[in-house]
């Protein structure tokens, strides 16, 4: 079941059905070109890659437009989506977390070494006296 070019894709499965054959060809032709190095295949590979990229970008834009149209101000869905989109992962937090763990490990190592030295002193002084 293939969706015609004039129809709108409403879901990911339909978008895959629209581009299914092109995506398979786009994946197969570069492998074939790599093996044969046929100069006639290279323009076809480039054309298919551009075509699939263009269609997927159109599908993403359609999906985003549908998402924006589905917002209801009474449900606060716009606020939740804005919060989700604006949230940027902070690599510094991860780095500081690693530094904190490293500092804690160094502290325990220091305590362990200090305890071992104290025990060694106790053993040496017990033999000396």
Summarize the structure.
The protein has 129 residues and is mainly α. The protein has helices spanning 12-36, 41-69, 77-86, 91-128. It folds into 2 domains: 1-87, no CATH class; 89-129.
Question: Share of helix among residues?
Answer: over 70%
Proportion in β-strands: under 5%
Order of helices and strands: HHHH
Distance between the termini: 94 Å
What's the overall average pLDDT, rounded?
76
**Count of helices?**
4
Give the radius of gyration. Answer: 31 Å
Helix-and-strand structural type: mainly alpha
In terms of per-residue confidence, which ranges show pLDDT below 50 for 5 or more consecutive residues?
1-9, 13-17
Instruction: Give the total of beta strands.
Output: 0
Biggest β-sheet: count, sense, barrel?
none
The general outline is elongated
Could you characterize what this model shows?
This protein is mostly helical and 129 residues long. The protein folds into 2 domains: 1-87, no CATH class; 89-129. Helices cover 79% and strands 0% of the residues. The protein starts with 11 loop residues before the first helix and ends with a helix.
């Amino acid at each position: 079941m293939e969706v015609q070019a004039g129809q709108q894709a409403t879901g990911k499965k339909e978008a895959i059905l629209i581009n299914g054959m092109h995506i398979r060809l786009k994946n197969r032709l570069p492998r074939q070109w790599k093996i044969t190095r046929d100069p006639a295949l290279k323009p076809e590979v480039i054309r298919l890659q551009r075509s699939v990229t263009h269609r997927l970008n159109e599908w993403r834009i359609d999906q985003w437009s549908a998402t924006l149209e589905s917002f209801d101000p009474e449900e606060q869905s716009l606020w939740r989506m804005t919060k989700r989109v604006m949230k940027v992962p902070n690599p510094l937090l991860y780095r500081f977390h690693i530094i904190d763990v490293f500092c804690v490990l160094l502290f325990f190592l220091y305590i362990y070494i200090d305890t071992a030295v104290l025990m060694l002193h106790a053993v040496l002084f017990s033999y000396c006296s």
